[in-house]
Amino acid sequence: MSSIYSISSANQSPARSSDQKITQCTVSCVYQTHIAGYWRNVTVVWSKNIMMNSLRISVESVERDQVCTCKLELKPWHFWSRKGNKSFMVDGNQLELYWDFRSATFSGPEPSKDFYVALVFGEEIVLLLGDMEKKAYKTTKARAAMVEALMFYKEEHVFGKKSFSTRVRFDQGREHDVVVESSTAGDKDPEMWISVDGIVLVHIRNLQWKFRGNQTVVVNNQPVQVFWDVHAWLFCLPGMGHGLFIFKAGGEGDSEGDDDTQCDGSDCSGPSRYSSARSYSKSVETCFFLYAWKIE
Fold this sequence. Notes:
By secondary structure, the protein is mainly beta. It has three helices and 20 strands. It folds into two domains: 26-151, no CATH class; 158-294, no CATH class. It has a nine-stranded mixed β-sheet.
């Protein structure tokens, strides 16, 4: 099995500190952007608990061991906070964060439509999220960046009983609906299904013997590597462990080019392949990590 699996199983993530406890649904994305003359990682973390949704954006310093963070709390009873802007400094440079969630639809931690989040440096939007692009450009009075920001890492923590759903962009194209379903209780042998856009692409029988594995599937004529580890579902108490699923576009050995900017399947879970503040590749591929927590 590729070492991408063994590394990620250790829960090493550029989007999460080592002492963070997962107590709520979260979605973390890391983008490569160009800010103030350097390529920097920008980490976007969406969170949801019973009280509110929140958004945290962290921008990497040139020093690499420092980040500058801006956080928003979207409380239902504070409608005024759903649109606005904030300023913060990175290496002596002022960045502006603009957002509009007044009409946003939240189906989880991350809004699905009718919103924008724009990170602006100088006269450029260096990172733009959401589907309200025209409003974002009008409000910020900024232009699109010379080089588009690219997402190369995404992880999501989902809680459920038997079914876990999310949306995945395997490359820089459209998103796909991904659903993981399992049957681990009762007298029958445990089974697991992984479907994309309603089509079952992975079906694992005798899951108690195949709780770890990998398989390459095809989505829109594109190979996608799928890795899984559901040991905790079968041998731990509910809530004491999670199932881990990794999705990476491209089959084994498909990556080409410079190792400093390509993900070759050996270290997608860590920051070393992508976090250079001075390197950039249009061809970086996204690694998606789904942490599925079973609850009673």
